[in-house]
Amino acid sequence: MRLLLLVNASASAVTARGRVVIQKALSADHEVVVAETSRRGHASRLAQGAAADGVDVVVVLGGDGTLNEAANGLAGSSTALGVLPGGSTNVYARTIGMVNDPIEATGQLLGALARRSLRPVGSLPRVPAYHAQIRNEGEARCHWRNSSGPTSSSSWAWSRSSPWSYPSGPSSTP
Fold it and tell me: CA of 62: how far to CAs of 10, 127, 143, 153, 171, in Å?
C-alpha cells in the first residue's frame, strides 16, 4: 500500500525518535512518504494532494486538530485516514480504541492494514455531526445532530490526571 505519513512535529507527543521508529515500522510492508506540516491548513492541502496522487492511506501523527484538517482534505475521496495519537488529548484516537502511545498505536494500525480493515466512516447511515465547545478550563460541551432527530448535547469534565469523566445526569449549564 502507498502511505503518506503526515506529521505535526509541534504536537505534544511527537518526538524525532518516535517519528523515525514509526516511519521504519510502516516502511517494512508499505511504500511510505513522509510530509511535515508547517502551518495551519497545511495538513488539509497535503492530504488532498495525496488523495489526488492515488495514495491509499494518509496516516496522521499529530493531535485532533491535524487529524481534523487531514479528514477535511480527504473528504469525498477514496483515500483512507489512519490515526496515530500525537497530541495531548487525542479524542478521536481514544474514541476508536487506539492506545495513547503513538509507537504502540503503530502496531495497531499495521494490524488493521494487514487485515485490510478499512471502514468508510463518512458513508455510515447515521453519522452524527459534532461541534465541540470549550466553556472554561476543565469543561467541554459537545452538541450533536443525528440525521433523524433534533440536536442533543452532553458535557464532559476533564483534568490532567483523569482525562475524561462523564456526568451522571444532564448538564445544568446551557
Answer: 8, 24, 24, 27, 31
Mean pLDDT of the chain: 76
Domains and CATH numbers, the chain: 2-123 (3.40.50.10330), 125-174 (no CATH)
Could you tell me if 93 and 85 are in contact, meaning their C-beta atoms sit under 8 angstroms apart? yes
As beta bridge partners, residue 162 has: none
What's at 11, amino acid-wise?
Answer: A
pLDDT in tens, 9-32: 999 999 999 999 999 999 999 999
Strand residue runs (E) in the chain: 2-7, 31-36, 57-62, 80-85, 129-136, 139-145, 151-157
What is the average per-residue pLDDT within 37-50?
95
Identify the band that residue 76 occupies on the pLDDT scale cut at 50, 70 and 90. confident
State residue 78's pLDDT score: 87
Contact 70, 47 (CB under 8 A): yes
Q: What is the Cα–Cα distance from 136 to 28, expressed in whole angstroms?
A: 44
pLDDT of 103 strictly over 80: yes
- Name the DSSP letter for residue 162: S
DSSP string, 85-120: E-SSS-HHHHHTT--SSHHHHHHHHHHHHHTT----
